[in-house]
């Protein structure tokens, strides 16, 4: 048995009740909020450098009222247009009050095609969009340190370079 409720939310304003229907315009939803609408970055994206082939998880979070929609971009293109797009927003219910919405994007295999600039954009019908960005890069330093150690060992050099612990 399925129940369909026509109301998205009921807001109590003292003795007055304001109903917001899904068919209402975004402006009427914004005017029906008890608290002023807000949209700001709670956790900005961070730059990440990881070895080629590793998986990387990017996380962003926004403090908002009402709850925003979050969209990921890689090099200016929406991430959900990629065949292997793998992201989730960690709050699945619509909330008209103030809340923190976190989203995570997993890059399964870091390489030249998945490295680059990423944007996490939050949009709300009541505010301007807010964006945070990061650069995901391949850490080539690890590769060169290992090649240096292997080269020294093959040449019979055993003196400590300070990199032997790698």
Automatic annotation (TrEMBL):
Superkingdom as given in the UniProt entry: Eukaryota
Q: Which UniProt keywords apply?
A: Disulfide bond, Immunoglobulin domain, Signal
**Which classification does the entry list for the species?**
Eukaryota, Metazoa, Ecdysozoa, Nematoda, Chromadorea
Domain named Ig-like is located at 36-137
Record-linked InterPro entries: Cell_Adh-Cytoskel_Orgn, Ig-like_dom, Ig-like_dom_sf, Ig-like_fold, Ig_sub, Ig_sub2
Q: Which N-terminal stretch is annotated as signal sequence?
A: 1-19
This chain belongs to which protein, by name?
A: Ig-like domain-containing protein
The record's section on Pfam families has: Ig_3 (PF13927)
């Amino acid at each position: 048995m399925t129940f369909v409720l026509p109301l998205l939310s009921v807001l109590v304003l003292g003795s007055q009740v304001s109903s917001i229907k899904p068919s209402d315009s975004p402006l009427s939803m914004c005017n029906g909020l008890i608290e002023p609408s807000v949209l700001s970055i709670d956790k900005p994206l961070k730059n990440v450098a990881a070895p080629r082939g590793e998986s990387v998880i990017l996380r962003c979070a926004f403090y908002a009222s009402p709850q925003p929609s979050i969209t990921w971009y890689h090099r200016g293109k929406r991430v959900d247009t990629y065949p292997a797009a793998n992201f989730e927003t960690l709050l699945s219910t619509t909330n008209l009050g103030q809340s923190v919405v976190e989203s995570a994007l997993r890059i399964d295999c870091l390489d030249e095609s998945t490295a680059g600039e990423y944007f996490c954009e939050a949009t709300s019908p009541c505010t301007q969009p807010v964006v945070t960005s990061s650069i995901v890069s391949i850490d080539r330093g690890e590769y060169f340190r290992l090649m240096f150690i292997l080269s020294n060992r093959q040449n019979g050099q055993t003196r400590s370079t300070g990199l032997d612990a790698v």
